[in-house]
Design goal:
The complex is a heterodimer of chains A (291) and B (316). With 291 residues, chain A is an all-alpha fold. Chain A has 15 helices and no strands. In chain A, helix 11 crosses helix 15 and helix 13 packs antiparallel against helix 14. Chain A is globular. Chain B folds into 2 domains: 53 residues; 230 residues, Orthogonal Bundle (MetI-like fold), CATH 1.10.3720.10. Chain B is 75% helix and 1% strand. Chain B is built from 13 helices and 2 strands; from the N terminus they run H-E-E-H-H-H-H-H-H-H-H-H-H-H-H. A two-stranded antiparallel sheet of chain B has the order 1-2. The longest helix of chain B has 53 residues. Chain B is globular and about 75 Å long. The chains are: A mainly alpha (291), B mainly alpha (316). Chains A and B meet through helix 1, helix 4, helix 5, helix 6 and helix 10 of A and helix 1, helix 3, helix 4, helix 5 and helix 6 of B.
Amino acid sequence: MKTISADGRLAPEAIDRSWRALPKHIALALASLAMLYPLLWMLSSSFKPEDEIFSDLSLWPKAVTLASYVEGWYGLGINFGRFFLNSLIVSGLAVVGNLAACSLAAFAFARLEFPLRKFWFAAMLGTLMLPYHVTLIPQYVLFQKLGWLNTFWPLVVPKFMAVDAFFIFLMVQFFRGIPRELDEAAVIDGCGPWRIYWSIMLPLSKPVLAAAAIFSFIWTWDDFFGPLLYLTDVANYTVPLALRGFVDATSRSAWGPLFAMSVLSLVPVFAAFLMFQRHIIEGIAASGLKR
Amino acid sequence: MAHSASLAVSAPGRVARRRWDGVRNALPGYLFLAPWLAGFVLFTLGPTLVSLYLSFTDFDLLRAPQWVGAANYQRMFSSDPKFWASVSVTLTYVVLSVPLKLAFALAVAMVLDRGIRGLSIYRAIFYLPSLLGGSVAVAILWKQVFGYEGLVNEFLWFAFGINGPSWISNPATSLYTLVLLSVWQFGSPMIIFLAGLRQIPRDLYEAASIDGATRRQQLTRITLPLLAPVIFFNLVLQTIEAFKAFTPAFIISGGTGGPVDSTLFYTLYLYQQGFAYFRMGYASALAWVLLLTIAAFTALTFFSQRFWVYYEDDQR
Protein backbone atom coordinates (compact mmCIF):
# COMPACT_ATOMS: atom_id res chain seq x y z
CA MET A 1 0.00 0.00 0.00
CA LYS A 2 3.00 2.21 0.49
CA THR A 3 5.04 1.97 -2.66
CA ILE A 4 2.33 1.76 -5.26
CA SER A 5 0.33 4.86 -5.90
CA ALA A 6 -2.82 3.78 -7.62
CA ASP A 7 -4.71 7.00 -7.40
CA GLY A 8 -4.26 7.44 -11.11
CA ARG A 9 -3.05 11.01 -10.99
CA LEU A 10 -0.17 12.07 -13.13
CA ALA A 11 1.57 15.40 -13.24
CA PRO A 12 -0.66 17.73 -15.31
CA GLU A 13 1.89 18.23 -18.04
CA ALA A 14 2.00 14.50 -18.67
CA ILE A 15 -1.66 14.37 -19.65
CA ASP A 16 -2.25 14.55 -23.33
CA ARG A 17 -4.92 17.19 -23.83
CA SER A 18 -4.45 17.59 -27.54
CA TRP A 19 -6.82 16.44 -30.26
CA ARG A 20 -4.46 13.61 -31.06
CA ALA A 21 -5.94 11.78 -28.10
CA LEU A 22 -9.42 11.87 -29.62
CA PRO A 23 -9.31 8.57 -31.60
CA LYS A 24 -8.13 6.85 -28.48
CA HIS A 25 -10.99 8.29 -26.50
CA ILE A 26 -13.48 7.16 -29.12
CA ALA A 27 -12.03 3.65 -29.05
CA LEU A 28 -12.07 3.54 -25.26
CA ALA A 29 -15.63 4.88 -25.09
CA LEU A 30 -16.81 2.22 -27.55
CA ALA A 31 -14.99 -0.46 -25.57
CA SER A 32 -16.58 0.81 -22.36
CA LEU A 33 -20.01 0.68 -23.92
CA ALA A 34 -19.44 -2.87 -25.17
CA MET A 35 -18.25 -3.93 -21.72
CA LEU A 36 -21.18 -2.42 -19.91
CA TYR A 37 -23.83 -3.19 -22.52
CA PRO A 38 -25.03 -6.49 -21.00
CA LEU A 39 -25.31 -4.92 -17.55
CA LEU A 40 -27.12 -1.84 -18.80
CA TRP A 41 -29.39 -3.98 -20.93
CA MET A 42 -30.30 -6.11 -17.91
CA LEU A 43 -31.08 -2.94 -15.98
CA SER A 44 -33.30 -1.58 -18.71
CA SER A 45 -34.96 -4.93 -19.37
CA SER A 46 -35.96 -5.17 -15.74
CA PHE A 47 -38.19 -2.14 -16.37
CA LYS A 48 -39.62 -3.40 -19.65
CA PRO A 49 -42.87 -5.28 -20.05
CA GLU A 50 -42.15 -9.02 -20.36
CA ASP A 51 -42.87 -9.31 -24.10
CA GLU A 52 -40.54 -6.47 -24.94
CA ILE A 53 -37.42 -8.07 -23.46
CA PHE A 54 -36.95 -10.50 -26.31
CA SER A 55 -37.73 -8.20 -29.14
CA ASP A 56 -35.70 -5.23 -28.07
CA LEU A 57 -31.97 -4.66 -28.08
CA SER A 58 -32.21 -1.05 -27.03
CA LEU A 59 -31.18 0.27 -23.66
CA TRP A 60 -34.19 2.55 -23.45
CA PRO A 61 -37.51 0.92 -22.47
CA LYS A 62 -40.42 2.04 -24.62
CA ALA A 63 -42.69 1.76 -21.65
CA VAL A 64 -41.43 1.72 -18.06
CA THR A 65 -43.14 -0.68 -15.69
CA LEU A 66 -42.35 -2.00 -12.24
CA ALA A 67 -44.34 -5.17 -12.88
CA SER A 68 -41.20 -7.35 -13.00
CA TYR A 69 -40.07 -6.03 -9.62
CA VAL A 70 -43.43 -6.67 -8.01
CA GLU A 71 -43.69 -10.15 -9.49
CA GLY A 72 -40.08 -11.01 -8.64
CA TRP A 73 -40.24 -9.72 -5.08
CA TYR A 74 -42.88 -12.33 -4.21
CA GLY A 75 -41.61 -14.89 -6.72
CA LEU A 76 -40.43 -17.55 -4.31
CA GLY A 77 -43.35 -17.62 -1.90
CA ILE A 78 -41.30 -15.71 0.67
CA ASN A 79 -40.61 -12.13 -0.30
CA PHE A 80 -37.12 -11.04 -1.23
CA GLY A 81 -36.98 -8.71 1.76
CA ARG A 82 -36.29 -11.76 3.86
CA PHE A 83 -33.40 -12.84 1.66
CA PHE A 84 -31.91 -9.37 1.72
CA LEU A 85 -32.14 -9.35 5.50
CA ASN A 86 -30.42 -12.76 5.67
CA SER A 87 -27.65 -11.60 3.35
CA LEU A 88 -27.23 -8.45 5.37
CA ILE A 89 -26.92 -10.37 8.65
CA VAL A 90 -24.37 -12.80 7.24
CA SER A 91 -22.34 -10.11 5.46
CA GLY A 92 -22.47 -7.72 8.43
CA LEU A 93 -21.24 -10.38 10.85
CA ALA A 94 -18.55 -11.43 8.39
CA VAL A 95 -17.26 -7.87 8.24
CA VAL A 96 -17.15 -7.55 12.04
CA GLY A 97 -15.53 -10.96 12.44
CA ASN A 98 -12.90 -10.38 9.79
CA LEU A 99 -11.97 -6.94 11.08
CA ALA A 100 -11.68 -8.05 14.70
CA ALA A 101 -9.95 -11.38 14.31
CA CYS A 102 -7.68 -10.52 11.39
CA SER A 103 -6.45 -7.27 12.93
CA LEU A 104 -5.61 -9.05 16.21
CA ALA A 105 -3.60 -11.69 14.40
CA ALA A 106 -1.97 -9.13 12.12
CA PHE A 107 -0.90 -7.05 15.13
CA ALA A 108 0.69 -10.11 16.71
CA PHE A 109 2.58 -10.92 13.50
CA ALA A 110 3.63 -7.35 12.77
CA ARG A 111 4.55 -6.08 16.24
CA LEU A 112 4.86 -8.70 18.96
CA GLU A 113 7.75 -11.03 19.68
CA PHE A 114 6.86 -14.55 20.66
CA PRO A 115 8.26 -18.04 20.14
CA LEU A 116 7.44 -19.68 16.79
CA ARG A 117 6.23 -16.41 15.31
CA LYS A 118 7.92 -17.06 11.96
CA PHE A 119 6.57 -20.56 11.85
CA TRP A 120 2.98 -19.45 12.38
CA PHE A 121 3.40 -16.66 9.89
CA ALA A 122 4.56 -19.14 7.26
CA ALA A 123 1.60 -21.38 8.14
CA MET A 124 -0.73 -18.43 7.67
CA LEU A 125 0.76 -17.68 4.25
CA GLY A 126 0.39 -21.34 3.38
CA THR A 127 -3.36 -21.21 4.00
CA LEU A 128 -3.58 -18.44 1.38
CA MET A 129 -2.69 -20.94 -1.32
CA LEU A 130 -4.90 -23.75 -0.05
CA PRO A 131 -8.00 -24.31 -2.21
CA TYR A 132 -10.97 -24.39 0.14
CA HIS A 133 -12.18 -27.63 -1.43
CA VAL A 134 -9.62 -29.52 0.62
CA THR A 135 -11.17 -28.52 3.93
CA LEU A 136 -14.73 -28.62 2.64
CA ILE A 137 -15.91 -32.06 3.61
CA PRO A 138 -14.40 -32.30 7.10
CA GLN A 139 -15.75 -28.81 7.82
CA TYR A 140 -19.17 -29.92 6.67
CA VAL A 141 -18.99 -32.97 8.92
CA LEU A 142 -17.86 -30.78 11.82
CA PHE A 143 -20.75 -28.33 11.38
CA GLN A 144 -23.16 -31.21 11.03
CA LYS A 145 -21.93 -32.71 14.31
CA LEU A 146 -22.38 -29.32 15.97
CA GLY A 147 -25.95 -29.19 14.66
CA TRP A 148 -25.22 -26.02 12.70
CA LEU A 149 -26.56 -27.13 9.32
CA ASN A 150 -29.23 -24.78 8.04
CA THR A 151 -28.03 -21.94 10.29
CA PHE A 152 -25.80 -18.95 9.60
CA TRP A 153 -23.11 -20.14 12.03
CA PRO A 154 -20.97 -22.06 9.48
CA LEU A 155 -20.86 -18.93 7.33
CA VAL A 156 -20.02 -16.57 10.17
CA VAL A 157 -18.10 -18.27 12.98
CA PRO A 158 -14.96 -19.02 10.90
CA LYS A 159 -14.66 -15.29 10.14
CA PHE A 160 -14.36 -14.59 13.86
CA MET A 161 -11.42 -16.98 13.83
CA ALA A 162 -9.60 -15.17 11.04
CA VAL A 163 -9.92 -17.96 8.50
CA ASP A 164 -9.66 -15.42 5.64
CA ALA A 165 -5.88 -15.18 5.88
CA PHE A 166 -5.79 -12.80 2.98
CA PHE A 167 -6.94 -9.96 5.22
CA ILE A 168 -4.32 -10.79 7.84
CA PHE A 169 -1.68 -10.55 5.15
CA LEU A 170 -3.04 -7.22 3.93
CA MET A 171 -3.08 -5.79 7.47
CA VAL A 172 0.40 -7.06 8.36
CA GLN A 173 1.75 -5.26 5.31
CA PHE A 174 0.07 -2.06 6.41
CA PHE A 175 1.00 -2.32 10.11
CA ARG A 176 4.65 -2.79 9.17
CA GLY A 177 4.55 0.57 7.46
CA ILE A 178 3.55 2.38 10.65
CA PRO A 179 6.66 3.85 12.37
CA ARG A 180 7.82 1.81 15.34
CA GLU A 181 8.76 4.99 17.21
CA LEU A 182 5.08 5.43 17.96
CA ASP A 183 4.88 2.10 19.80
CA GLU A 184 8.16 2.74 21.57
CA ALA A 185 6.96 6.10 22.83
CA ALA A 186 3.76 4.48 24.00
CA VAL A 187 5.69 1.75 25.85
CA ILE A 188 7.69 4.42 27.65
CA ASP A 189 4.40 6.04 28.63
CA GLY A 190 3.41 2.72 30.14
CA CYS A 191 1.12 1.35 27.44
CA GLY A 192 0.73 -2.42 27.14
CA PRO A 193 0.22 -4.27 23.86
CA TRP A 194 -3.55 -3.91 24.03
CA ARG A 195 -3.41 -0.11 24.32
CA ILE A 196 -0.90 0.06 21.48
CA TYR A 197 -3.17 -2.07 19.33
CA TRP A 198 -6.36 -0.26 20.22
CA SER A 199 -5.26 3.35 20.59
CA ILE A 200 -2.39 3.58 18.13
CA MET A 201 -2.48 0.92 15.44
CA LEU A 202 -6.19 0.75 14.72
CA PRO A 203 -6.78 4.50 14.43
CA LEU A 204 -3.78 4.78 12.10
CA SER A 205 -4.93 1.87 9.95
CA LYS A 206 -8.25 3.16 8.74
CA PRO A 207 -7.40 2.74 5.02
CA VAL A 208 -6.56 -0.93 5.32
CA LEU A 209 -9.45 -1.60 7.69
CA ALA A 210 -11.80 0.07 5.22
CA ALA A 211 -10.46 -2.01 2.34
CA ALA A 212 -10.82 -5.21 4.38
CA ALA A 213 -14.35 -4.28 5.44
CA ILE A 214 -15.46 -3.49 1.89
CA PHE A 215 -14.02 -6.66 0.42
CA SER A 216 -15.41 -8.84 3.22
CA PHE A 217 -18.79 -7.34 2.60
CA ILE A 218 -18.73 -7.74 -1.18
CA TRP A 219 -17.31 -11.26 -1.14
CA THR A 220 -19.70 -12.49 1.50
CA TRP A 221 -22.64 -10.82 -0.19
CA ASP A 222 -21.74 -12.54 -3.48
CA ASP A 223 -20.78 -15.85 -1.94
CA PHE A 224 -22.78 -18.67 -3.42
CA PHE A 225 -20.94 -21.84 -2.50
CA GLY A 226 -21.11 -21.50 1.29
CA PRO A 227 -24.84 -20.80 1.45
CA LEU A 228 -25.45 -23.53 -1.15
CA LEU A 229 -23.83 -26.05 1.18
CA TYR A 230 -25.22 -24.96 4.49
CA LEU A 231 -28.59 -23.29 3.98
CA THR A 232 -31.39 -25.65 3.02
CA ASP A 233 -34.53 -23.95 4.31
CA VAL A 234 -35.85 -21.30 1.91
CA ALA A 235 -36.49 -18.93 4.83
CA ASN A 236 -32.72 -18.93 5.52
CA TYR A 237 -31.64 -18.33 1.92
CA THR A 238 -29.27 -15.49 1.16
CA VAL A 239 -29.92 -13.43 -1.97
CA PRO A 240 -27.66 -15.41 -4.38
CA LEU A 241 -29.21 -18.67 -3.24
CA ALA A 242 -32.71 -17.25 -3.65
CA LEU A 243 -31.83 -16.10 -7.16
CA ARG A 244 -30.67 -19.58 -8.02
CA GLY A 245 -33.89 -21.04 -6.63
CA PHE A 246 -35.73 -18.51 -8.71
CA VAL A 247 -33.92 -19.63 -11.90
CA ASP A 248 -34.94 -23.21 -11.27
CA ALA A 249 -38.51 -22.28 -10.43
CA THR A 250 -39.23 -19.95 -13.33
CA SER A 251 -40.30 -20.94 -16.79
CA ARG A 252 -38.39 -20.06 -19.92
CA SER A 253 -40.15 -16.78 -20.51
CA ALA A 254 -40.01 -15.22 -17.05
CA TRP A 255 -36.76 -13.31 -17.51
CA GLY A 256 -38.28 -10.02 -16.39
CA PRO A 257 -38.72 -10.84 -12.69
CA LEU A 258 -35.43 -12.73 -12.70
CA PHE A 259 -33.63 -9.68 -14.09
CA ALA A 260 -35.39 -7.38 -11.65
CA MET A 261 -34.21 -9.39 -8.64
CA SER A 262 -30.73 -9.81 -10.15
CA VAL A 263 -30.47 -6.04 -10.49
CA LEU A 264 -31.55 -5.57 -6.88
CA SER A 265 -28.98 -8.13 -5.73
CA LEU A 266 -26.22 -6.09 -7.37
CA VAL A 267 -27.31 -2.77 -5.86
CA PRO A 268 -25.44 -3.10 -2.53
CA VAL A 269 -22.20 -4.14 -4.25
CA PHE A 270 -22.54 -1.37 -6.79
CA ALA A 271 -23.28 1.17 -4.07
CA ALA A 272 -20.21 0.04 -2.13
CA PHE A 273 -18.19 0.48 -5.31
CA LEU A 274 -19.46 4.00 -5.92
CA MET A 275 -18.85 5.07 -2.34
CA PHE A 276 -15.49 3.42 -1.77
CA GLN A 277 -14.04 3.26 -5.26
CA ARG A 278 -10.69 4.62 -4.18
CA HIS A 279 -10.27 2.10 -1.37
CA ILE A 280 -11.24 -0.75 -3.65
CA ILE A 281 -8.89 0.23 -6.47
CA GLU A 282 -6.01 0.91 -4.08
CA GLY A 283 -6.62 -2.34 -2.26
CA ILE A 284 -6.39 -4.29 -5.50
CA ALA A 285 -3.41 -2.39 -6.79
CA ALA A 286 -1.58 -2.87 -3.49
CA SER A 287 -1.88 -6.58 -3.28
CA GLY A 288 -3.39 -7.87 -6.42
CA LEU A 289 -6.36 -8.91 -4.48
CA LYS A 290 -8.96 -10.85 -6.26
CA ARG A 291 -10.54 -13.92 -4.96
CA MET B 1 32.12 -25.44 48.78
CA ALA B 2 29.91 -22.53 49.74
CA HIS B 3 30.75 -21.00 46.43
CA SER B 4 29.74 -24.01 44.43
CA ALA B 5 26.59 -24.40 46.53
CA SER B 6 25.47 -20.90 45.72
CA LEU B 7 26.14 -21.60 42.06
CA ALA B 8 24.09 -24.74 42.22
CA VAL B 9 21.25 -22.79 43.78
CA SER B 10 21.36 -19.79 41.54
CA ALA B 11 21.62 -21.58 38.20
CA PRO B 12 18.20 -23.23 38.26
CA GLY B 13 16.75 -20.01 39.70
CA ARG B 14 18.10 -18.04 36.79
CA VAL B 15 16.80 -20.59 34.34
CA ALA B 16 13.41 -20.47 35.99
CA ARG B 17 13.31 -16.71 35.81
CA ARG B 18 14.35 -16.74 32.19
CA ARG B 19 11.61 -19.24 31.44
CA TRP B 20 9.15 -17.03 33.27
CA ASP B 21 10.27 -14.06 31.17
CA GLY B 22 9.82 -16.20 28.10
CA VAL B 23 6.27 -17.07 29.11
CA ARG B 24 5.52 -13.46 29.95
CA ASN B 25 6.81 -12.33 26.56
CA ALA B 26 5.00 -15.10 24.75
CA LEU B 27 1.71 -14.48 26.47
CA PRO B 28 0.53 -11.27 24.75
CA GLY B 29 1.56 -12.60 21.36
CA TYR B 30 -0.39 -15.79 21.81
CA LEU B 31 -3.37 -13.96 23.27
CA PHE B 32 -3.58 -11.78 20.16
CA LEU B 33 -3.02 -14.78 17.97
CA ALA B 34 -5.52 -17.00 19.80
CA PRO B 35 -8.58 -16.54 17.52
CA TRP B 36 -6.52 -17.20 14.41
CA LEU B 37 -4.71 -20.11 15.99
CA ALA B 38 -7.96 -21.74 17.06
CA GLY B 39 -9.42 -21.18 13.60
CA PHE B 40 -6.29 -22.52 11.95
CA VAL B 41 -6.39 -25.77 13.90
CA LEU B 42 -10.16 -26.18 13.80
CA PHE B 43 -11.00 -25.08 10.27
CA THR B 44 -7.81 -25.47 8.26
CA LEU B 45 -5.13 -27.80 9.60
CA GLY B 46 -7.51 -30.31 11.18
CA PRO B 47 -9.86 -30.55 8.18
CA THR B 48 -6.91 -30.78 5.77
CA LEU B 49 -5.53 -33.81 7.58
CA VAL B 50 -8.98 -35.36 8.00
CA SER B 51 -9.72 -34.95 4.30
CA LEU B 52 -6.44 -36.65 3.45
CA TYR B 53 -7.58 -39.57 5.61
CA LEU B 54 -11.10 -39.55 4.15
CA SER B 55 -9.66 -39.68 0.64
CA PHE B 56 -8.55 -43.24 1.44
CA THR B 57 -11.98 -44.26 2.67
CA ASP B 58 -15.54 -44.88 1.63
CA PHE B 59 -17.66 -42.36 3.47
CA ASP B 60 -21.30 -41.41 2.99
CA LEU B 61 -21.85 -39.27 6.11
CA LEU B 62 -24.17 -41.87 7.68
CA ARG B 63 -21.83 -44.73 8.49
CA ALA B 64 -18.28 -44.48 9.76
CA PRO B 65 -15.59 -44.18 7.07
CA GLN B 66 -14.39 -47.52 5.68
CA TRP B 67 -10.71 -47.75 4.80
CA VAL B 68 -10.33 -48.67 1.11
CA GLY B 69 -6.68 -47.83 0.51
CA ALA B 70 -5.98 -46.09 -2.77
CA ALA B 71 -9.20 -47.31 -4.38
CA ASN B 72 -10.62 -43.80 -4.79
CA TYR B 73 -7.53 -42.64 -6.63
CA GLN B 74 -7.44 -45.78 -8.76
CA ARG B 75 -11.06 -45.37 -9.73
CA MET B 76 -10.51 -41.73 -10.61
CA PHE B 77 -7.66 -42.39 -13.00
CA SER B 78 -8.70 -45.72 -14.47
CA SER B 79 -12.48 -46.06 -14.54
CA ASP B 80 -14.21 -42.70 -14.25
CA PRO B 81 -14.81 -41.04 -17.62
CA LYS B 82 -16.62 -38.16 -15.90
CA PHE B 83 -13.46 -37.35 -13.97
CA TRP B 84 -11.51 -37.07 -17.22
CA ALA B 85 -14.31 -35.01 -18.76
CA SER B 86 -14.10 -32.56 -15.87
CA VAL B 87 -10.30 -32.43 -16.09
CA SER B 88 -10.47 -31.67 -19.78
CA VAL B 89 -13.15 -28.97 -19.31
CA THR B 90 -11.18 -27.32 -16.53
CA LEU B 91 -7.83 -27.41 -18.31
CA THR B 92 -9.38 -26.01 -21.49
CA TYR B 93 -10.93 -23.24 -19.42
CA VAL B 94 -7.67 -22.43 -17.63
CA VAL B 95 -5.53 -22.53 -20.76
CA LEU B 96 -7.90 -20.31 -22.75
CA SER B 97 -9.24 -17.88 -20.20
CA VAL B 98 -6.09 -16.99 -18.26
CA PRO B 99 -3.84 -15.88 -21.17
CA LEU B 100 -6.71 -14.08 -22.93
CA LYS B 101 -7.73 -12.29 -19.77
CA LEU B 102 -4.17 -11.22 -19.00
CA ALA B 103 -3.56 -10.12 -22.60
CA PHE B 104 -6.65 -7.90 -22.50
CA ALA B 105 -5.74 -6.59 -19.08
CA LEU B 106 -2.23 -5.70 -20.18
CA ALA B 107 -3.27 -4.15 -23.50
CA VAL B 108 -5.91 -1.92 -21.92
CA ALA B 109 -3.59 -1.00 -19.05
CA MET B 110 -0.94 0.14 -21.52
CA VAL B 111 -3.44 2.25 -23.42
CA LEU B 112 -4.63 3.84 -20.19
CA ASP B 113 -1.14 4.33 -18.79
CA ARG B 114 0.02 6.88 -21.33
CA GLY B 115 -1.32 9.99 -19.65
CA ILE B 116 -4.90 10.01 -20.75
CA ARG B 117 -7.70 12.23 -19.46
CA GLY B 118 -10.53 10.56 -17.65
CA LEU B 119 -8.32 7.65 -16.61
CA SER B 120 -10.20 7.07 -13.38
CA ILE B 121 -13.52 6.88 -15.22
CA TYR B 122 -12.31 4.34 -17.77
CA ARG B 123 -10.60 2.37 -15.04
CA ALA B 124 -13.80 2.23 -13.01
CA ILE B 125 -15.85 1.15 -16.03
CA PHE B 126 -13.43 -1.59 -17.02
CA TYR B 127 -13.18 -2.78 -13.45
CA LEU B 128 -16.91 -3.01 -12.85
CA PRO B 129 -17.40 -6.42 -14.54
CA SER B 130 -14.69 -7.88 -12.28
CA LEU B 131 -16.53 -6.66 -9.25
CA LEU B 132 -19.94 -7.93 -10.28
CA GLY B 133 -18.92 -10.85 -12.49
CA GLY B 134 -18.66 -13.55 -9.84
CA SER B 135 -22.25 -13.07 -8.72
CA VAL B 136 -25.20 -15.29 -9.40
CA ALA B 137 -26.95 -12.29 -10.97
CA VAL B 138 -24.34 -11.99 -13.74
CA ALA B 139 -24.39 -15.75 -14.33
CA ILE B 140 -28.16 -15.44 -14.86
CA LEU B 141 -27.56 -12.55 -17.24
CA TRP B 142 -25.03 -14.64 -19.16
CA LYS B 143 -27.50 -17.47 -19.45
CA GLN B 144 -29.94 -15.12 -21.12
CA VAL B 145 -27.41 -13.27 -23.28
CA PHE B 146 -26.12 -16.50 -24.86
CA GLY B 147 -29.45 -18.31 -24.88
CA TYR B 148 -31.50 -19.05 -27.97
CA GLU B 149 -33.58 -15.90 -27.64
CA GLY B 150 -30.72 -14.04 -26.04
CA LEU B 151 -29.06 -10.71 -26.62
CA VAL B 152 -26.31 -12.13 -28.85
CA ASN B 153 -28.75 -13.79 -31.23
CA GLU B 154 -30.96 -10.71 -31.27
CA PHE B 155 -27.94 -8.74 -32.31
CA LEU B 156 -26.90 -11.27 -34.97
CA TRP B 157 -30.41 -11.20 -36.41
CA PHE B 158 -30.58 -7.43 -36.26
CA ALA B 159 -27.16 -6.84 -37.79
CA PHE B 160 -26.62 -9.74 -40.19
CA GLY B 161 -29.96 -11.50 -40.46
CA ILE B 162 -28.36 -14.63 -38.98
CA ASN B 163 -30.43 -16.98 -36.87
CA GLY B 164 -27.94 -17.98 -34.18
CA PRO B 165 -28.02 -21.18 -32.14
CA SER B 166 -28.40 -21.38 -28.39
CA TRP B 167 -24.77 -20.94 -27.39
CA ILE B 168 -25.46 -22.15 -23.86
CA SER B 169 -27.17 -25.41 -24.72
CA ASN B 170 -24.80 -26.38 -27.53
CA PRO B 171 -21.98 -28.54 -26.15
CA ALA B 172 -19.62 -27.22 -28.81
CA THR B 173 -19.93 -23.61 -27.63
CA SER B 174 -21.14 -23.62 -24.02
CA LEU B 175 -17.66 -23.68 -22.45
CA TYR B 176 -16.54 -20.75 -24.60
CA THR B 177 -19.36 -18.58 -23.26
CA LEU B 178 -17.85 -19.17 -19.83
CA VAL B 179 -14.36 -18.37 -21.10
CA LEU B 180 -15.80 -15.13 -22.42
CA LEU B 181 -17.39 -14.41 -19.05
CA SER B 182 -13.99 -14.79 -17.44
CA VAL B 183 -12.20 -12.64 -20.03
CA TRP B 184 -14.87 -9.97 -19.60
CA GLN B 185 -13.60 -9.65 -16.03
CA PHE B 186 -10.12 -8.51 -17.03
CA GLY B 187 -10.47 -5.39 -14.87
CA SER B 188 -8.79 -6.55 -11.72
CA PRO B 189 -5.52 -7.76 -13.30
CA MET B 190 -5.69 -4.56 -15.36
CA ILE B 191 -5.58 -2.47 -12.19
CA ILE B 192 -2.57 -4.43 -10.98
CA PHE B 193 -0.86 -3.92 -14.34
CA LEU B 194 -1.60 -0.20 -14.19
CA ALA B 195 0.00 0.01 -10.77
CA GLY B 196 2.99 -1.92 -12.12
CA LEU B 197 3.35 0.28 -15.20
CA ARG B 198 3.38 3.32 -12.98
CA GLN B 199 6.49 1.95 -11.28
CA ILE B 200 8.52 2.04 -14.48
CA PRO B 201 10.62 5.22 -14.56
CA ARG B 202 9.58 7.49 -17.43
CA ASP B 203 13.15 8.54 -18.20
CA LEU B 204 13.87 5.04 -19.47
CA TYR B 205 11.45 5.65 -22.33
CA GLU B 206 12.86 9.10 -22.94
CA ALA B 207 16.40 7.75 -23.07
CA ALA B 208 15.28 4.94 -25.37
CA SER B 209 13.53 7.25 -27.81
CA ILE B 210 16.56 9.53 -27.92
CA ASP B 211 18.60 6.46 -28.83
CA GLY B 212 16.12 5.83 -31.63
CA ALA B 213 14.20 2.91 -30.15
CA THR B 214 10.86 2.25 -31.81
CA ARG B 215 7.61 1.85 -29.91
CA ARG B 216 7.87 -1.86 -30.42
CA GLN B 217 11.41 -2.01 -29.07
CA GLN B 218 10.35 0.04 -26.07
CA LEU B 219 7.62 -2.50 -25.42
CA THR B 220 9.80 -5.58 -25.70
CA ARG B 221 12.98 -4.15 -24.16
CA ILE B 222 11.60 -1.94 -21.39
CA THR B 223 7.95 -2.42 -20.58
CA LEU B 224 7.62 -6.19 -20.69
CA PRO B 225 10.90 -7.03 -18.89
CA LEU B 226 10.25 -4.52 -16.12
CA LEU B 227 6.64 -5.64 -15.80
CA ALA B 228 7.55 -9.34 -15.68
CA PRO B 229 7.18 -9.68 -11.88
CA VAL B 230 3.66 -8.22 -12.10
CA ILE B 231 2.78 -10.47 -15.03
CA PHE B 232 4.05 -13.38 -13.02
CA PHE B 233 1.95 -12.39 -10.01
CA ASN B 234 -1.20 -12.03 -12.10
CA LEU B 235 -0.51 -15.30 -13.85
CA VAL B 236 -0.26 -17.27 -10.61
CA LEU B 237 -3.31 -15.58 -9.12
CA GLN B 238 -5.56 -15.92 -12.15
CA THR B 239 -4.54 -19.53 -12.77
CA ILE B 240 -5.49 -20.50 -9.24
CA GLU B 241 -8.77 -18.61 -9.63
CA ALA B 242 -9.54 -20.33 -12.92
CA PHE B 243 -8.99 -23.76 -11.39
CA LYS B 244 -11.51 -22.92 -8.70
CA ALA B 245 -14.26 -21.53 -10.96
CA PHE B 246 -17.66 -22.80 -9.92
CA THR B 247 -20.61 -20.41 -9.70
CA PRO B 248 -21.19 -19.51 -13.37
CA ALA B 249 -21.01 -23.11 -14.53
CA PHE B 250 -23.33 -24.18 -11.74
CA ILE B 251 -25.94 -21.51 -12.48
CA ILE B 252 -25.82 -21.75 -16.26
CA SER B 253 -26.00 -25.54 -16.37
CA GLY B 254 -28.47 -25.78 -13.50
CA GLY B 255 -25.91 -27.70 -11.44
CA THR B 256 -25.51 -30.49 -13.99
CA GLY B 257 -22.36 -29.42 -15.83
CA GLY B 258 -24.28 -30.01 -19.05
CA PRO B 259 -24.97 -30.07 -21.89
CA VAL B 260 -23.14 -33.41 -22.28
CA ASP B 261 -20.66 -32.52 -19.49
CA SER B 262 -19.35 -29.62 -21.58
CA THR B 263 -19.34 -27.31 -18.54
CA LEU B 264 -18.59 -29.96 -15.95
CA PHE B 265 -15.93 -27.98 -14.14
CA TYR B 266 -13.75 -29.96 -11.78
CA THR B 267 -15.15 -28.16 -8.76
CA LEU B 268 -18.68 -28.83 -9.96
CA TYR B 269 -17.94 -32.53 -10.29
CA LEU B 270 -16.42 -32.50 -6.80
CA TYR B 271 -19.55 -30.83 -5.46
CA GLN B 272 -21.80 -33.39 -7.17
CA GLN B 273 -19.81 -36.33 -5.82
CA GLY B 274 -19.71 -34.95 -2.29
CA PHE B 275 -23.08 -33.33 -1.86
CA ALA B 276 -25.41 -34.85 -4.45
CA TYR B 277 -24.23 -38.50 -4.24
CA PHE B 278 -22.64 -38.21 -0.78
CA ARG B 279 -19.50 -40.01 -1.92
CA MET B 280 -17.48 -37.97 0.50
CA GLY B 281 -14.39 -40.18 0.44
CA TYR B 282 -14.23 -39.87 -3.32
CA ALA B 283 -14.87 -36.13 -3.16
CA SER B 284 -12.00 -35.77 -0.67
CA ALA B 285 -9.72 -37.61 -3.06
CA LEU B 286 -10.83 -35.24 -5.83
CA ALA B 287 -10.04 -32.28 -3.56
CA TRP B 288 -6.54 -33.58 -2.91
CA VAL B 289 -5.88 -34.09 -6.59
CA LEU B 290 -7.00 -30.48 -7.13
CA LEU B 291 -4.67 -29.28 -4.39
CA LEU B 292 -1.73 -31.15 -5.86
CA THR B 293 -2.52 -29.95 -9.37
CA ILE B 294 -2.69 -26.32 -8.28
CA ALA B 295 0.49 -26.74 -6.27
CA ALA B 296 2.24 -28.30 -9.26
CA PHE B 297 1.12 -25.52 -11.60
CA THR B 298 2.20 -22.87 -9.13
CA ALA B 299 5.56 -24.56 -8.60
CA LEU B 300 6.05 -24.82 -12.34
CA THR B 301 5.28 -21.13 -12.78
CA PHE B 302 7.68 -20.25 -9.97
CA PHE B 303 10.36 -22.41 -11.54
CA SER B 304 9.82 -20.84 -14.95
CA GLN B 305 10.45 -17.41 -13.43
CA ARG B 306 14.19 -17.74 -13.83
CA PHE B 307 13.77 -17.76 -17.60
CA TRP B 308 11.54 -14.75 -18.00
CA VAL B 309 11.11 -12.76 -14.81
CA TYR B 310 13.65 -10.09 -14.10
CA TYR B 311 13.72 -8.55 -10.66
CA GLU B 312 15.34 -5.16 -10.43
CA ASP B 313 17.65 -6.11 -7.58
CA ASP B 314 18.93 -9.18 -9.44
CA GLN B 315 22.61 -9.05 -10.20
CA ARG B 316 22.95 -10.21 -13.75
